[in-house]
């Protein structure tokens, strides 16, 4: 089978809720990434055969196929098609998988996989509450689902608490993990480690060029003073991912496109998979997905140089580390979503961009991205830096 190569991987700096990017329409944020992918690679924009855009909350400004609207807001020709996909938090990682599959099958040669989420302008769950507030329908969890799983709804907050209890993580363990995320992100920012992957965004207040959510003065006392999200629980807003506005994307091509357009690959997609498990505990599936993708790739955990495991809530990467026996020093080396933010549909290719550039900066070869997702699914991707 043909190979799929990533020739550029970029992201906007994260914007805090009601922060630096709150004045930006999400279609424009997505467009900034599309423009940057084209300009930094020098590819003819007419060569792009599709844009696959991940987005979770597809309502309001993110409705009506945000992928297509991002193309129309960009400098790409109107002849470039686009589609929006939803694999919850793994949406743009799934976009990468779809793009790689298209290239590897020979169906297409040049595809952009991207993601966008303005959690300020389109609040989380807005797509599920608008009809309910009007008294229309029962919401996404049908009576059959409720009966099958014995729940009235699925809650990621409950799932995170269940994982913490199952694996024996107390509040201090979660808070210490959160503090380390901020420390690593602060160190990466101060050293310039993110500069290669960032696409600064022009705003009314000026150029937004650095991740806004990092707490450079974070302390265990401050993190420990935040109330639990669920009464009596251990998961808090301080040891969970930050609400975030942002966009990200990668340009995926095949071997013919490398030759035709004179492109230099940054990385190769070694293997990829998606799995599904218990939708109630919901967020534990990256453990199974990692095992599956390594098995498919014929690789061991020890062959992977760096890992990006999304920090949706501190118990998720901690459980992943515990069950797999992975090295914490190789995991989320530049911090994670607790410090940098989790712009939902943009997080997949955001982590891919960070991973690729971290590997290249260290002269290392293999990386793995694993993502927990609403509904109990998970994507995992193994990449080789070239």
UniProtKB/TrEMBL annotation:
<feature type="domain" description="Thiolase N-terminal">
    <location>
        <begin position="5"/>
        <end position="255"/>
    </location>
</feature>
<keyword id="KW-0012">Acyltransferase</keyword>
<dbReference type="Pfam" id="PF02803">
    <property type="entry name" value="Thiolase_C"/>
</dbReference>
<comment type="similarity">
    <text>Belongs to the thiolase-like superfamily. Thiolase family.</text>
</comment>
<dbReference type="InterPro" id="IPR020616">
    <property type="entry name" value="Thiolase_N"/>
</dbReference>
<dbReference type="InterPro" id="IPR016039">
    <property type="entry name" value="Thiolase-like"/>
</dbReference>
<dbReference type="Pfam" id="PF00108">
    <property type="entry name" value="Thiolase_N"/>
</dbReference>
<dbReference type="InterPro" id="IPR002155">
    <property type="entry name" value="Thiolase"/>
</dbReference>
<dbReference type="InterPro" id="IPR020613">
    <property type="entry name" value="Thiolase_CS"/>
</dbReference>
<keyword id="KW-0808">Transferase</keyword>
<dbReference type="InterPro" id="IPR020617">
    <property type="entry name" value="Thiolase_C"/>
</dbReference>
<feature type="domain" description="Thiolase C-terminal">
    <location>
        <begin position="263"/>
        <end position="384"/>
    </location>
</feature>
<protein>
    <submittedName>
        <fullName>Acetyl-CoA acetyltransferase</fullName>
    </submittedName>
</protein>
């Amino acid at each position: 089978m043909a190979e799929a190569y990533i020739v550029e991987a970029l992201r906007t700096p994260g914007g805090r809720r009601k922060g630096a990017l709150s004045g930006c329409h999400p279609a424009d944020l997505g467009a900034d990434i599309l423009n940057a992918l084209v300009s930094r690679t020098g590819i003819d924009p007419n060569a792009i055969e599709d844009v696959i855009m991940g987005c979770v909350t597809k309502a309001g400004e993110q409705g009506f196929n945000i992928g297509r609207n991002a193309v129309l807001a960009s400098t790409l020709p109107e002849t470039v098609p686009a589609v929006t996909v939803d694999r919850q938090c793994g949406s743009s990682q799934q976009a990468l998988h779809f793009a790689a599959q298209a290239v590897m099958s020979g169906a297409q040669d040049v595809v952009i996989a991207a993601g966008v989420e303005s959690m300020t302008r389109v609040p989380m769950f807005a797509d599920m509450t608008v009809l309910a507030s009007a008294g229309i329908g029962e919401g996404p969890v049908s009576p059959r689902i409720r009966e099958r799983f014995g729940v009235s709804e699925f809650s990621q907050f409950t799932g995170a608490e269940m994982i913490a209890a199952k694996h024996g993580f107390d509040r201090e363990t979660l808070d210490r993990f959160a503090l380390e995320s901020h420390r690593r992100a602060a160190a990466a920012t101060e050293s310039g480690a993110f500069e290669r992957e960032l696409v600064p965004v022009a705003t009314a207040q000026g150029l937004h060029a650095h991740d806004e959510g990092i707490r450079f003065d974070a302390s265990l006392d401050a993190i420990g003073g935040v109330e639990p999200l669920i009464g009596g629980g251990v998961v808090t807003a301080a040891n969970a991912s930050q609400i975030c506005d942002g966009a990200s994307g990668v340009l995926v091509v095949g071997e013919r496109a490398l030759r035709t357009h004179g492109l230099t690959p940054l990385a190769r997609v070694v293997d990829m998979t998606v799995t599904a498990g218990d939708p109630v505990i919901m967020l534990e599936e990256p453990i199974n997905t990692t095992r599956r993708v390594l098995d498919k790739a014929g690789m061991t955990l020890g062959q992977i140089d760096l890992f990006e495991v999304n920090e949706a809530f501190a118990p998720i990467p901690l459980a992943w580390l515990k069950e797999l026996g992975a090295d914490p020093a190789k995991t989320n080396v530049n911090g994670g979503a607790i410090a940098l933010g989790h712009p939902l549909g943009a997080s997949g290719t955001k982590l891919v961009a960070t991973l690729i550039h971290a590997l290249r900066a260290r002269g290392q070869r293999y990386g793995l991205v694993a993502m927990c997702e609403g509904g109990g699914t998970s994507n995992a991707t193994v990449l080789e830096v070239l």
